[in-house]
Amino acid sequence: MAITITLKKRSGTDAALRAAWRNGERRNRHRVYLITAAKMTLGRTANAQHTRNMANSSPGAASSTASLFEILEPEDVSSALVFNSPHSGSLYPPSFLEQTRLGLDKLRRAEDNFVDELFIGVVERGAPLLRAHFPRSFIDVNREPYELDPRMFEGKLPGFANTRSVRVAGGLGTVPRIVGENQDIYAGRLPVDEALFRIARYHRPYHAALRHLLTRTQSRFGFSILLDCHSMPSISVARDPNPRADFVLGDRYGTSCNPVIIDLFEAEARKLGYVVIRNKPYAGGFITEHYGHPNTDQHALQIEINRALYIDEATLAPNPGFEPLKADLMTITEALMAIEAGDLHAQRRAAE
Fold this sequence. Notes:
This protein is an alpha/beta fold. The protein has helices spanning 14-23, 94-99, 104-107, 115-118, 166-169, 192-221, 234-238, 259-271, 286-291, 322-337, 341-351; strands at 3-10, 30-38, 60-61, 69-74, 81-85, 91-92, 129-132, 153-154, 178-179, 183-184, 190-191, 224-232, 247-250, 276-278, 298-306.
């Protein structure tokens, strides 16, 4: 599979970077890679692109000239941190909107609304940010490539498909069956080729880009720290017996990152007045599990942010807490950027 990469350069403060993103301006400080096409032979042409047009950042149907996802990175990468926002995409393929029985207002409840913008300041601080433009209700890259529910499809799935996972049983496989409170996305079954197309066109290229960033980072710094950034509805936290959480940090119960990383994030967040819980109800998905291997200096931490902190959950518009939270996240980020390989190795030796 070939991926076409278009390089655009942008610069300036967080606000200027956002304005450049929205206005399509080209500047010279930040490098932005727009992943625009992947050659496919699954019954659809490679120019049938279904994601965000960078000149139009409003949610809704995607333009045929839009990018699949993008990598924002500084001219000088100075940090071993890599940030990932796989669920903040808000441009919906027209073909998907024709297939679904739900309106856009229901589908958008599955998005990690504005999480990419909460973390966009990491770019000018020396770390790359990968963000999806396609929505998670269309295809979820925080799942195994072939985590598929056979009840959803006409035709036979590949023999290697994982049809028995807990996530598939819950309707939240690679091609999700439901959103929100068990609302079915489709009125009927989809062709198997549709699932294979989405996996090949979206899932594989996205993970190829993420692997590239992590491999390059580890080669340069001797270790890598992936921060997988998400948001959670406040109602899901309220159901948990623990106190209301502002952040849920997931390290797969101590297996996906060195304790130094999660300890530091929690300590910095608590200093800023936030309530932090670990691993419940979110311990980390496929991305955290797949890329987190502390014994080989590859660390992954999932961050879940309570949406009530920064958006109106009824309208999905940013609330007055958006900018303060964004600033606090950059304070935490700067502390994490100070971690060196020696800090991680010293902790590992102490634990042996």
